[in-house]
Amino acid sequence: MPRQSLKPLLARGKCLVAPGVFDLISTHMLNQHGAEATYMTGFGVVASALGLPDAGLATYTEMLDRARRIAEFSKAPVIADADTGYGGLLNVRHTVRGYEAAGIAAIQLEDQEFPKKCGHTPGRRVIPLADMVRKIEVAADSRSSADFLIIARTDARTSLGLDEALRRAEAFAKAGADILFVESPESEAEMETIGRHFHQPLLANMVEGGRTPVLPRARLAELGFQVAIYPAAGFLATAAVLDRMYAHLTTTGSSLGAPVPVFDFKALTEIMGFPEVHAFERRWAETA
């Protein structure tokens, strides 16, 4: 059972925003701003933990370890990317049980062929619809609590068109998915079509520089989307700052005159929990 449930947030009737986190510093930083939900991004986790592209190279064990740690520290319920479920039906059952035990609030499963790819990159192919329906049925049957939500994603829009993506999402809903995720619609008009087509909760993937237009929260709600994830915003911003800072350091040989803001070191130590460490040492240290 998840440590926190998304159900009360979805019941409010407005679009729930879930910024993406990719490691534990980003999780701690997001906690400072009262986020309603957290999204564990597959692209960001694979890049930060393995230094590799999001192309089916991360294992279930590696992703579960990061999911467990993020859920442990996140103050908001966590939506977690679980790719294709890391194998066949037995693997899907194992993945669902593992993510639920880790404290995740909602698991995202997609219908891509293995090895999968990031949803806003070319060359993605999907498995037969019947195979993905069975995966969703197994996922719904494998959870121990209905508070642990199943997000069913289809990547069919890019290769097979919007009509096929809608048909697949309909089948996923009948199979037991709680939230539907039609990946990478390519216009606001397509997003409006998706919103009109379903009465079930819908998820919008807002990727800066991706295939789908990034829209304001209010507009997403008008279009019928109950969840908006921003998987890339954090790591794109981080990469931009690192790029400028490291360029400055290697060029000048010093951080003096840095072209970007630098977060206060003392504030970061407080966010990371050093005051508790110091309090422990004051109470239990063996030496002065």
From TrEMBL:
- What is a single Pfam family found in this protein's UniProt entry? PEP_mutase
SUPFAM superfamilies the UniProt entry points to: Phosphoenolpyruvate/pyruvate domain (SSF51621)
Q: Which PANTHER family match?
A: CARBOXYVINYL-CARBOXYPHOSPHONATE PHOSPHORYLMUTASE, CHLOROPLASTIC, PHOSPHOENOLPYRUVATE CARBOXYLASE
The UniProt GO MF terms for this protein read:
oxo-acid-lyase activity
Gene3D superfamilies, sorted? Phosphoenolpyruvate-binding domains
Q: Indicate what this protein is called per its UniProt record.
A: Carboxyvinyl-carboxyphosphonate phosphorylmutase
Q: Which CDD domains match?
A: ICL_PEPM (cd00377)
